[in-house]
Amino acid sequence: MKFYIGEMVVKIKEIPEHPVLKSFFRRPAPVDSEVTVNWEVNVVSEQDWHYEAWDCVDGIWFTARRGHILKYDGARNFLILNVMDSLDPRDLYWIRRDLFGGFGSVSCQQIIHSSAVIKDGKGYVFSAPSETGKTTLFNNLSPYVEQVNDESNWVYQNNDGQFMLVNQNYYFGLSDVNEVPLAAVYLLEQSPTCSIVEEVDVMEAFTILLSIHAPFDYYDPFLEDRSAAIRHLQKNFPIKKFLVNLKPEEIAETLFN
């Protein structure tokens, strides 16, 4: 069976009976579609991996969390997810982060260390180093927007040349919209007042947008492809700086009006 996730085609032998994953299979792909990656999902009742681990062993990259382990077997082009049959609600955050990081990386498209929101059918992405305000901004905007993810977001350019933001909420049954046009990509910098700066340093932007990234962090088999994708984004889409404070109304007014 083949399904679309983002614009890529994923082939899976058997659809898992798991409440967290059931909405991933909402968009069937044609039988003759070219497969980007094979996906194997195993629902398990006991954890047989070490929590909080990243590594590459015998050509298989993996990242492990409390509720799941995600592996990439490059030789077979398989993304393998072992997930616990019962999950703590906190585990859902990490599954989202790692799965979309994995799918986006395999697709060789732009995976950005960022928070992202949707406003009036358009996507806004905010990138910054860790501990500099992405999650705070994400939370401050919550009354005005649909929140997508505050850690890892997948952007790609479609066949019409339009950059799109993948709406992760769709794949968890929380939205009927699977992707939206990308309206803006901002680098964040804290400031007493909010404003938008049109010019940014190219190398600074590249470093922030690329970043150490889920799911494989330092053991990243897709680093070269991700680097090329970020350069393509910089060349073909305006990257701006958003000087931001902690006042939700001023933030929303500056961004959306």
How are the secondary structure elements laid out?
Elements (H helix, E strand, L loop, with lengths): L1 E4 L2 E5 L24 E8 L8 E5 L2 E5 L3 E6 L4 E7 L4 H18 L3 E10 L2 E6 L6 H7 L5 E4 L2 E6 L5 E4 L12 E12 L4 E3 L4 H9 L12 H14 L2 E6 L3 H9 L1
Parallel strand pairs: 2-3, 3-7, 9-13, 13-15
Antiparallel strand pairs: 1-2, 4-5, 5-6, 6-7, 8-9, 8-10, 8-11, 11-12, 12-13, 14-15
Structure overview:
This protein has 257 residues and is of the alpha+beta class. The N and C termini lie far apart (44 Å). The chain is globular and about 50 Å long. Strands 1-2-3-7-6-5-4 form a seven-stranded mixed β-sheet, with helices on one face. Strands 8-9-13-12-11 form a five-stranded mixed barrel, surrounded by four helices. A hairpin with a 2-residue loop joins strand 1 and strand 2. Helix 3 crosses helix 4 (223-236). The chain has one domain. The longest helix is centred in the middle third of the chain and has 18 residues, at 89-106. Helix content is 22%, strand content 35%. The protein has five helices and 15 strands. The protein has helices spanning 89-106, 134-140, 202-210, 223-236, 248-256; strands at 2-5, 8-12, 37-44, 53-57, 60-64, 68-73, 78-84, 110-119, 122-127, 146-149, 152-157, 163-166, 179-190, 195-197, 239-244.
Descriptive labels:
globular, single chain, 257 residues, 5-stranded mixed barrel, alpha+beta
Summarize the structure.
22% of the residues lie in helices and 35% in strands. It is of the alpha+beta class.
